[in-house]
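Annotators were shown the component list below and the corresponding predicted structure, then asked to write short factual statements about the assembly.
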Amino acid sequence: MDTNSFTDLIKQKCLDVGFSKSGIAPVQYYQEDKIHLEKWIDNGYHASMNWMKNNIEKRTNISNYYQDSKSVISVAINYFTGNSTEEYTAPFISNYALGKDYHIIIKSKLKILLEEIQKIDKDIVGYYCVDTSPIMEKAWAQRAGIGWIGKHTNLITREFGSWVFLGELIINKELSYDSPFSTDLCGTCNLCIDECPTDAIVEPYNLDSNKCISYVTIEHKGDFEEKNMIDLNDWIFGCDICQEVCPWNIKFSEFSNEKDFFDRYSLKEKDYKFWENLTEEEFRKIFKNSPVKRTKYSGLKRNISEAKHK
Ligand code: B12
Ligand code: SF4
Ligand code: SF4
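Structure shown to annotators:
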C-alpha cells in the first residue's frame, strides 16, 4: 500500500475507534519545546511536579524517548459533558473527571489502533502515550494540525473547542504529514486570563501551577502550606473556569459521543453536605476507575474543607 493510502487508512481507523480528530507529524527536534519547558521550570512554575524536570531530554526530544520513531499520530477525543458552574451549584468537580478515567479509555483505543495498523504492516512498532508519557502533547497536536495552543495553555480545536483530551501513537514508519496549525485564533481575546480567579495565567501561554486550582486540588500532595493557600473558589477537583469562559468553547462545544465520560453518580448535583459526609468506602466505590482517585480519599477531603469560597 502506498504511503498516502496507508495514511488515509490510519486516519479512518482513528475515527472508527472513536477519536474525534487526528493528525500526523514527522518526528523532529524542536528547540522551542526545550526553551519553553526549561524557562517554565526555572521559574518554578512546575511547583512540586518534579517529574516534569526529571526527564527534560526525553520530554523535549521524542527520539530520546523512542529512538526509532518516525511519525507521531496525534489524536484528540471530545470529552465535554456540560459546564459545571453554569448548570449546578457548588462545590464543583471538573468536567474532565466526572466519568471513567480518560487514560484507560484512550489507551484502549490506541491499543486497538496499533493492532489494526500492524495487521497491514507487521513491522510497525508503536508506543502509545496519554498524559503520563514524557512528551509535550499539546505541541505535538499543534504540529499535527489538530489545533492551536490558546492563551490559557490548552489546545483548542475549531470543532470542539478545548474540551479534548490528547493522545499519541508514535511509530517507526514515515507517513504523509499534516501541516502544523499555524494560526493563533485567540486574537485579541484575553478572557481566560482576566477570569482566572487566582491569576495563574501569568502571561499569555504561560501558567504558574502554584497558583492554579487544578494543580493545587489534584497534584499537590499532603496538607496545604501557606504558599498553597489560594481560594479554591468552590472547586474540589480540577478547575474549568478558563475553559468555560473561552468563546471557542461557548460557541463550539458539543456533547461527547463517549458515554463513559459522563457523570455516572450525578456528582454535579451533590452539595457540600454530601461531600463532607463522604466515607472512604463510598469514595472507593464512586471513584473506582476515575481520575479523582489520584488525590486519594485524604486529598479529596482536604479539598472539600478548603474549597468553600471565602
Ligand atoms: C503538567 C500538566 C498540567 C499542570 C501544568 C499545566 C500546564 N499548562 O503546563 C497542571 C496540573 C496545572 C495541569 C492542569 C490541567 N490540565 Co494538564 N497536563 C500536564 C501535562 C502532564 C504536561 C504539560 C506540560 O508539558 N507543561 C509544561 C509547559 C511548558 O508545556 P506546554 O504548556 O505544553 O508548553 C507549550 C506551549 O504552551 C508553549 N509555551 C510554553 N510557554 C510559553 C511561553 C510563551 C510566551 C509562548 C508564546 C508559548 C509558550 O510552548 C510549549 C511547547 O513548545 C500534560 C500531558 C503531557 N504529557 O503533555 C497534561 C495536559 C496538558 N493536561 C490536560 C488537562 C485536561 C488539564 C486541565 C484542563 C484539567 C482540569 N480541568 O483541571 C487543567 C488545565 C489548566 C491550564 N489552564 O492549563 C490535557 C490538555 C488537553 C488540551 N486540550 O490541551 C493534557 C494534554 C493531558 C491530555 N493527555 O489530554 N496540567
Ligand atoms: S484551571 Fe482554573 S485556576 Fe488554573 S488557570 Fe484555569 S481558571 Fe485559572
Ligand atoms: S479565552 Fe480567549 S484568549 Fe483564552 S484561550 Fe480562549 S480565545 Fe484564547
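Statements collected:
1. Residues 167 and 211 are 26 Å apart (CA to CA).
2. The chain has 14 helices and ten strands.
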